[in-house]
Amino acid sequence: MTRFALTLEFDGTPFMGLQRQAHGPSVQQAVEEAVLAVTGETVTLHAAGRTDAGVHALAMPVHVDIEKSIAAFRLMEAVNALLRPAPIAVIACEVKPDDWHARFSCQGRAYLYRIANRRAPLTLERNRAWLVSRPLDADAMHRASQALVGHHDFTTFRSVHCQAASALKTLDRLDVRREGENVLIEAEARSFLHHQVRSMVGCLALVGMGRWEEPQVAEALEAKDRAALGLNAPPEGLYFVGARY
């Protein structure tokens, strides 16, 4: 048995999320079916993170265990051929030790959220950024974001459907910057709660629009109450960008 680590890039628009779902297509199902077609083996894909419907990935580490003797490059090429035309690509593939695990060996995860801050509708970037037509003050957003960095109870910023045992998380980094008409939010932590990044982005966007004062982000955090959340940003602007091992 060989453990293969695959790095996936995908557009989450047509999927119900990364994990298998009974009610629609998933990234996991597409990759597992491609591996089955290549090797004749039914495998279970394990991923570094979970993404909701409509969320994308630039570099999502996953692993599968395969009995058949096959080179990593050959596996990558064959799986990519069978994934077409689904918007999923294996951009790297390598053999890992048996005790390496895409999820449990992961020491840190990074996300990027993209806001297109312009009045015109999106065309090429449709479903790949959150369109906010009202001007955003990215500097104010960044200042407000720093109240969330560190070890906190993020109850306000977790989905009511979150299955984590505790809302306590350590946010290592949360930065906001403007690049032209785009406002980019980068978040890093060992792990995140369900909807945590989108919830944080939504509240920061309210600050950027001038609808919230900067201290209100800290007040929402201190409330430890989902009802204190101002806005949950949509999924299409969120990208899983990398994992640290």
Can you tell me about this structure?
The structure is a single chain. This protein is an alpha+beta fold and 245 residues long. The chain is 23% helix and 30% strand. Strands 1, 2, 3, 4, 5, 6, 7, 8, 9 and 10 form a 10-stranded mixed β-sheet that branches. Strand 8 (168-179) and strand 9 form a beta hairpin. Helix 1 packs across helix 2 (72-83). The protein starts with a strand and ends with a strand. The model has no long low-confidence stretch (mean pLDDT 97).
Percent in helix: 10-25%
CATH topology call of the largest domain = Alpha-Beta Plaits
Work out the count of structural domains: 2
The first-to-last residue Cα distance is: 22 Å
The global form is globular
Our estimate of the beta-strand percent is 25-35%
Question: Quick one: CATH class of the largest domain?
Answer: Alpha Beta
List the secondary-structure elements in sequence, H or E: EHEEHEEEHEEEHHE
**How many β strands by DSSP?**
10
For the biggest sheet, the summary is: 10 strands, mixed
The overall pLDDT, averaged over residues, is: 97
Report Rg: 19 Å
